[in-house]
Amino acid sequence: MADIVDPATRSRMMSAIRGADTRPELLVRRHLHAAGFRFRLHARELRGRPDVVMPRWNAAVFVHGCFWHRHTGCRYATTPATRPDFWREKFDRNMQRDAATLATLEDEGWRVATVWECALRREPAETLEALAAWIGSGAPSCEFGAPITPP
Predict the structure, then answer these.
(1) What family does the database annotate (predicted)?
(2) Within 13 Å of residue 107, how many CA atoms lie on the same side as its CB?
(3) In 108-137, where does DSSP find H-type helix?
(4) Which end of the chain is more exposed for a tag (fewer CB within 10 A), N or C?
(5) What is the pTM of this model?
(6) Mind spelling out the 3-state secondary structure of 64-114?
(7) Which residues on neighbouring strands pair with residue 116, listed in sequence order?
(8) Looking at residue 147, what is its pLDDT?
(9) Domain range enclosing 81
(10) Domain at 69, CATH number
C-alpha cells in the first residue's frame, strides 16, 4: 500500500513526534508535583532515561505511548499498512529495549512503573491516584493501564 502523503510531508510529520514532554508525561508530572512528590526528569545516568525519577522513593516512572511501545492488546497499538516489515522490526527493537531497560533498572534496585497512554486517556484521575499510592507504598514494579480492546 502506498503512503497517502509525499515523503517530505511524512518526514516532517514524523520529526514532529516528541520523545519528551509529551502531553501524557506532563499530566503525570503535574499530578505528582501537586501531590507533593519531588522528582528529576530524564536522568541520563539511568538506563532508558526514565521520564520521572524519584531517588527518595527509589522509583522510576516511564510514560509509554501505546503505539510506539506496543501495549499488548490495546487498540492504539496499530501497525501502519505502509512498509509493515520496517514497522515490525522497529517495534520489536522498541519492545526488546524496554524489556532490557526494565530488567537493568530492577537489577540496580529501582522500582519501575510504566504508565500507559490509554490509561491516562480513559481514567486519568484513577490512574494518577494509583500511581501516587504506588510510589509511597514501596511495592515492586508495576504497570498502570489495562489495554483498551476494540469494541
Answers:
(1) Belongs to the vsr family.
(2) 8
(3) 117-122, 124-137
(4) C
(5) 0.87
(6) ECHHHHCCCCCCCCCCCCCCHHHHHHHHHHHHHHHHHHHHHHHHCCCEEEE
(7) 64
(8) 64
(9) 19-144
(10) 3.40.960.10
